[in-house]
Amino acid sequence: MKLRCINLDWLEIFAEEPAQCPHDANYFRSAGYKVKERAYGTPQYKEMFTVIADGEELFEIRRNPYSLKKEGGIFKENACHIRLCNRTCYEVDPVNHLRAFMLAHDYTYVAISRIDIALDFTKFDNGEHPEKFIEKYMRGKVAKVNQCRVSAHGNDEWARRVFNSLKWGSPSSPVTTKLYNKTLELKQGEDKPWIRQAWEAAGLDVSQDVWRIEFSLSAQMQTLQSLKNGEMFKKSIIHYDSRERLLKQFFILYNKYFDFRKCLVNRKSDGTLVYVRKYLCPRIELFKYDNDIPFKPCRNVTKRKRPDRVYKRLANRLAAIVDDDRNSREGMAAAQTLGGWMQNRPMLGV
What we know:
The chain is of the alpha+beta class. The chain contains 9 helices and 16 strands.
């Protein structure tokens, strides 16, 4: 049995708030939320705050841009970014939680700004331990295809160097890849019990160190080219709105960006050793994907009463989207999925 735990670890989208109703911190306070404001904004936005319900941080919002199109800049006046707080990422249905929040407050989805997909495990499918694998990599026994920029973190012990984190890709890369000891990170930094709860739900042996492979994708990685006809198409949050789809996206990235080869060396007639080209060396199959069924997390939030007024408003809007043939198939499918999710959820995040 393959024991894996697949989750979002970051989801941030570019959106637009209603032009006639600025969604500032006071707007959300009037809607019944608690709001934690930062005293300063960001290089792009004047305002930044976190929306809180029942003591839980749900969404981080950045709004009120500096660079406006009407003044020759890049943003509309109502442009904003919405990010799921880390705990929200580990909810049962984080993408549907975001959809419900956006529908309830009339946000318009534009695009994904950044998304991180994380797979947690204790050993690779071939039985190898991540620490041993990293040791082989650092000694040059295996080599990685793609992403030649690498940074490593670990401890310099008396008899050896122990590495617990590797990262491939530059800060400006559209995709970066990380392999690191997540158990150690939680011990040394902020403890996140919702992550450990996800491990237990997935059946991981938490008495061992849990390791993580994480792909971080920028907005550039959301526009792809079809291999069939060469046409460009844009991915949206519908590609990540279930753990089955999330696992599929992980393995698409794994096949390209976690490609390791066993280093082979040839000896010339004069005795000189020459490395065989990477692509001619055998690939090391660390994981196998056989249409796996990902774990189903238990609910990690307390049940709260559903606000009837908001529920009715959302239900009517979803029904209208599904019944309107002018909408895209993707939009109608997303509305239908969200409607089914609402029926079983005790709270819509409002």
